[in-house]
Predict the structure of Peroxide stress protein YaaA.
Amino acid sequence: MLVVLPPSETKATGGSHPAVDFSSLSFGSLNSIREHIAADLVALSANREAAMETLKLGPRLADEVTANAALLESPTMPALERYTGVLYDALSPSDLPETGRARLAIGSALFGVIGGDDLIPRYRLSGTVKLPFADQPADAAPTMKRRWGTAITEALNDVDFLIDLRSGTYANLGKVKTATTMTVLTAEGKIVSHFNKHYKGLFARAIALSDTAPTAPTEAVDIARAAGYNVSLDDGALIFRVPEN
């Protein structure tokens, strides 16, 4: 089974491992596309102004372009530690067991989908960006969805039981029809927007800490409830109800 998490725009800096080795990454069928996207992102970053415009970065984020320019040579760290923010704070991956970490993957505009322990560099690339090919005019830049085509879907179709916690942008890069999704609701039944990431992080942590991996949605519900969360099923989808304050 596998829980696929969304990435984060913010990422930890540095790393104690060598530069990215695409051949070592999970879902090796994605490597050709990964390498082309990485090369085009590095090429774009040679022109700071053009890169900031394409990536929609403000002046205070200029160092993100510097990171992109060096992404093929910069140090790496496990993906679960590279990504930061609300979801990853709740997930608190540093103390997860190896078996639990192996149940987690992360969607990515650059890598498609990667295992939680895959070693990756710092980078900045949103799923909404139109990244130009290095050898073609910028106005012919394709969407990330077009770049990935059906590759992510095909890679994830092999997973026996998939819980897809990706946000809409990243789910659209490679939808899996058989995946189990999750909606986070308030006690009154209203959809939780930004802070749904926090609860998805808590849910993923519960799955990772479970002695046994779930093989069906009902088992995932049982694990979440045992961890103290109000999770149920509605027409095959997971519903996480946020406790009242």
